[in-house]
Amino acid sequence: MMTHTAYVAASYGIAAVTVVALILWVWADGRARRRELQALDQAGIRRRSAQAGDAQ
Questions:
Q1: 10-14, 26-30, 43-47 — which is least confidently predicted?
Q2: What is the mean pLDDT of residues 20-38?
Q3: How far apart are CA 33 and CA 28, in angstroms?
Q4: Which of 14, 16, 35, 45 could disulfide-link to 40, CB 3.0 to 4.6 Å?
Q5: Which residues does 2 contact at the CB level (< 8 Å), separation at least 6?
Q6: What is the pLDDT, as a whole number, of residue 44?
Q7: Is 90 exceeded by the pLDDT of residue 11?
Q8: What is the SS3 assignment for the chain?
Q9: Of the candidates 28, 10, 29, which has an alpha carbon nearest to the alpha carbon of residue 18?
Q10: Dmax of the chain from CA atoms?
């Protein structure tokens, strides 16, 4: 039988692991998107919203 303290500790532990996993996922996905954008930029593909001759 689980005690109240063990239940609370387990709940906080699961929540902490979930938050850390989400942070790592968002960070890794952001890096992947930046790599994709860099590859597109190097291939000469630009955003439709970018005006011709815009310098960054």
A1: 43-47
A2: 97
A3: 9
A4: 45
A5: 10
A6: 87
A7: yes
A8: CCCHHHHHHHHHHHHHHHHHHHHHHHHHHHHHHHHHHHHHHHCCCCCCCCCCCCCC
A9: 10
A10: 69
| Token pair of 28 as six digits | 């890794």
Is 90 exceeded by the pLDDT of residue 16?
yes
- Owner of token pair 């960070």: 27
What's the token pair of residue 7?
Answer: 């239940």
Say which amino acid occupies 45: I
Token pair, residue 36, equals: 């994709």
User: To which residue do tokens 């996922």 refer?
Assistant: 25
Q: How far apart are the first and last CA of the chain?
A: 62
